[in-house]
Amino acid sequence: MREDHAATWPLHQGWRRDWRQTLRDLCDANALWGWWLGLIPLLSFVVTPPRGFIGQLGTVDTRTETTESLGITVAAVALGFLPAALTVVRRYVALDLVIRPAVLFLWILTLIAASFLYEITPKDFGMLAIGLYVMVLICVLCSQQEDTEEIVRKVFTALAVFQSVVMIVALVDNNYVVGRFQGRIGPNYWGSTAASTLLISYVIRSLPVRAVVMGICAYMLIVSQNRSGMIAAMAGSVMVALLYWLRANGRQRLRMVGAAVLGLIVLLAASPVIYSKVFLLDNARRGLESNGTGRFAAWQEALNIIYTHPLFGVGYRHHEQYITAASSAHNAYLAAMADMGVLGLLTYLVYLFGAMGIAIAAAMRRREWSYAVMAGVLFGYAAVNFLETRGINFANSVSLSVLCAVALILRANPPRMAAKQEGIS
Length: 425
What we know:
The protein is mainly α. Helix content is 68%, strand content 1%. Strand 1 (176-177) and strand 2 form a beta hairpin. It has a two-stranded antiparallel sheet with strand order 1-2. Helix 5 runs parallel beside helix 7 (122-142). The protein has helices at residues 3-7, 15-27, 31-47, 67-78, 81-90, 99-115, 122-142, 148-173, 187-200, 207-224, 227-247, 250-269, 271-278, 295-308, 332-366, 369-384, 397-410, 415-424, and strands at 176-177, 180-181.
């Protein structure tokens, strides 16, 4: 038994040593994967013009996609070839490590292709090609002979730091409308990016660096007024805290209780501000009487699609063409079934909750912090999926980080690491 590790999980080795190790994480070859993922929101921001008042559109707040933004997103995804090539050249890779994620990815792509039998467009072929390309890249990432803990630390540390810099760039641009941050692309986009960045930042070894990243994310969530992102960040953080609690010693648990009590007192004292100014529950357009800002009507329309196409759906990402109350179903579970039928929903549930369960078990069994963080990332994603159509997507950093997390959770351990685990357990 490794009670020494269990008592200090996650293990901190001192401020200076943690800082040096964080710097090494950022300079490692695997960090290039994190820089690549963070490049997507940066390039999308650069090519998108400042945003005006969206209320005049008569629709819910959503991202406006242009030919330029779509083109630059595809270009950013294509740049994933660089970290993949570096991984193949500099690391010893073994394809047997990625059998499980590869099989799952192949099934998902097959299901997406089959869903287009109802109706297919030229854009769908491109979407399939991007999906295949992205999944191959992620399999390359997961095929290297390095411990999963180290891969996650380096990739997610680089992604968290870089996306924090990107958010600062967007904030400096100062694109606000009626007091709400737009960031050119849209408040919901930046809110989801901030929530995802906050959750993956739990892997950062240096406490000061982690605190700065989380502070930037919290500020972005507040100014973007993205409540679904706030819910995702809170849900994922609760999962991480729970897993930490289960491995913590008595002194660590006492500190957690003290922090929780202090936090509860602050929340109660600030509850009027949180109710009105943060969650906007008494706002005429976005409050409790707004029917979920159009979501309730969108959910009903999604259910109507499911009722008429229950078995095979209407095609991956095609349900959006049938929704008039919003830009999409605003619920990933309804969207999965509307797009790909019963098999699509079941596959998505296995993809998300199956990987989450494995991560939780691995966090407890292997005492590796990265699995606890990935469980938090997936739980936050699962929570926000009740309010947003995130699902399985191939061209935004939030969904791609989830794809990476699922593949890293499912990958096999390199033989030498498995032997080491058996020798010290």
